[in-house]
Write a structure and sequence with these properties.
Blueprint: H1 3-7, H2 9-26, H3 40-43, H4 54-57, E1 59-64, E2 69-72, H5 81-90, E3 100-103, E4 108-111, H6 118-128, E5 134-137, H7 141-157, E6 164-169, E7 175-182, H8 186-194, E8 199-207, E9 210-218, E10 223-226, E11 230-231, E12 238-244, H9 254-264, H10 267-270, E13 280-281, E14 286-287, E15 297-302, E16 305-310, H11 314-322, E17 330-335, H12 338-350, E18 364-368, H13 370-399, H14 402-426, H15 432-456, H16 465-495, H17 500-531
Antiparallel strand pairs: 1-7, 1-18, 2-4, 2-5, 3-4, 6-7, 8-9, 8-15, 10-12, 11-12, 12-17, 13-14, 15-16
């Protein structure tokens, strides 16, 4: 009973792989991951679980370096990163410690303020007294990794399914961040990326000289829980509910520090009734009188720009004064428009970009409309069908023997189908370069099958299985050597950050491996059953 299975296990393996590919292509549990606020059916692009890249779905591609300079081989002298950052920032007129990063593992110091020039950074490093090997354009690997995580978070929080972020390197060694977002226009993606996303709460108050501002009373990392944007039930505005952290291992918690700052600036006394209001003028930066009072105000600042100013509910102000608010830390960031509240919620959830993307300078961007992507999918399908028919025609002309030609074509198609299953299983977006890899796999696959058929039938008909196996092994050595050569040639394209070429190389190598390990041996078993009698 087990003898037929033992003799034809390679064919059975091919059948199992094809069935597995079918499950991956059409099974409900293998579809693309939906973005926040999106259901599984909306994330699926068609009847299969295949995902399409920009070339086949339309969308926007942005490729840009990160603004900044890095001092390499810095002699930190055992100082803490905070001390080094403070010392360097003190020598820069137009940068703060938030724009200076220190990475001890790389012995590097970087500045991410786009207004700082290389000469200014060099002078600051010299003035701070730190020896360094050189200054290069760009930022550290740590900052690039953090940037990619933040951008991916922004894409996910914005509900843009299928978006991807990766690091690529040019031939000259310069690093770029490559962002691809299917189905979105160029301007929408650029607006999302150009906004650095830093959110903070400042306190504006009056002193003897007019209006003063305490910056960073709450910063991005102080928030523990961040809600979704909600339309206000008291007027046309909107708000984002947040919870400020009330615990800290290093000292006073952000909630207690903010509570003390609010009480110190006089909010409990200024906001005793609902009639007490904030009179901050964002154009002049001054607090104006409202009902005869110049009350302190909270300023919501995004990317250095005040987008809203507001006072405080009397009950909340009283809790701040008595010291009970910090126990819960619940707070509302109010805005004038719902769209602003959505953007603030997105920035808080995804985090702030550690450096700016230089899109308008050295960066490039391109966009493909959805209709163009659909045309590309149609043309790719037509080209694929034509290539199959062309290969089938040449095979029939070569052998004029259905027993040899038909299994050859079916096996080649099974190889492409298996590749599609792997693409669906891995969630790899199909691009034109990947389609080119599929076509290359069809060509090289049929070449190998022709080698098998020619070697087996080179000395006339073969009826003995022993003779067949001997000839098949000779052919397989040739196929194995050719496969090894292809894998070696494609390996650099797989590991180097070369964009679409990586997809071409990955699926070409994957197709070669599937062919050598699964489809070629299965074709050999099929031929042996059809051509031999003993």
């Amino acid at each position: 009973m087990l003898e037929p299975i033992k003799e034809n296990w390679r064919i059975l393996l091919l059948v199992v792989v094809v069935l597995g590919s079918t499950v991956a292509l059409f099974g409900p549990g293998f579809g693309p991951e939906p973005a926040p606020g999106e259901n599984a059916s909306e994330a699926q692009q068609g009847i299969t679980n295949l995902q399409y890249g920009l070339d086949l779905a339309g969308g926007t591609r942005v490729r840009a370096p990160l603004s900044g300079y890095t001092a390499t081989d810095v002699a930190l002298g055992g100082e803490s990163p905070e001390a080094v950052a403070d010392a360097v920032a003190a020598e820069l007129d137009n940068a703060s410690t938030r724009n200076v990063g220190v990475v001890p593992d790389e012995s590097a110091v970087e500045v991410t303020d786009p207004t700082v020039t290389e000469s200014q950074f060099r002078a600051a490093m010299d003035a701070a007294g730190y020896e360094y090997g050189g200054i290069r354009s760009g930022v550290t690997q740590e900052t690039r990794d953090e940037t990619m995580n933040v951008i991916q978070g922004k894409i996910n929080e914005a509900g843009l399914s299928g978006g991807s972020v990766q690091q690529v390197q040019s031939i000259t060694g310069e690093y770029f961040i490559l962002v691809e977002v299917p189905g979105q226009g160029r301007q929408e993606v650029i607006d999302l990326l150009e906004e650095r996303g830093t959110v903070r709460i400042d306190i504006a108050y009056t002193d003897g000289n007019g209006t003063a501002v305490q910056e960073g009373a709450l910063i991005q990392g102080d928030f523990d829980e961040i809600g979704t944007a909600t339309q206000s039930d008291r007027g046309p505005g909107a708000y984002v509910p947040v919870t400020v952290r009330n615990s800290d291992d290093d000292g006073q918690s952000p909630a207690h520090a903010f509570q003390d700052a609010v009480a110190q600036r006089g909010f409990p006394d200024a906001y005793e009734t609902q009639a007490d209001q904030c009179g901050y003028n964002s154009e002049t930066g001054e607090i104006e009188e409202v009902n005869g009072d110049r009350n302190p105000c909270l300023l919501l600042v995004v990317d250095g720009e005040v987008i809203n100013s507001f006072g405080m509910d009397s009950g909340l102000a009283d809790d701040m004064g008595t010291g009970s608010w910090a126990e819960t830390g619940r707070f509302r960031l109010t805005t004038g428009e719902f769209a602003e509240a959505q953007q603030i919620s997105l920035n808080l959830r995804a985090g702030a970009l550690p450096a700016d993307l230089d899109i308008s300078g050295e960066g490039t961007s391109s966009s493909i409309s959805a209709s163009q992507g659909e045309n590309f999918r149609t043309y790719s399908l037509i080209i694929g069908v034509l290539s199959v028919f062309a290969v089938a025609g040449m095979v029939f002309l070569r052998y004029r023997e259905p027993r040899v030609a038909l299994p050859m074509i079916v096996t080649a198609l099974a190889e492409v189908y298996t590749l599609l299953g792997f693409a669906a299983l891995l969630g790899y977006p199909l691009e034109l370069a990947v389609i080119a890899g599929f076509i290359a796999v069809v060509g090289t696959g049929v070449d190998d099958l022709v080698i098998i058929a020619d070697q087996v039938m080179s000395e006339g008909d073969v009826s003995s299985r022993t003779v067949f196996d001997s000839r098949f092994r000779q052919a397989f050595w040739v196929i194995g050597a050719a496969a090894a050569t292809t894998i070696i040639a494609m390996s650099p394209l797989m590991v180097l950050s070369l964009g679409d070429l990586s997809g071409f190389a990955i699926f070409t190598v994957l197709g070669v491996l599937i062919g050598v390990l699964i489809t070629r041996p299965a074709y050999g078993d099929i031929l042996r059953r059809l051509l031999t009698v003993r």
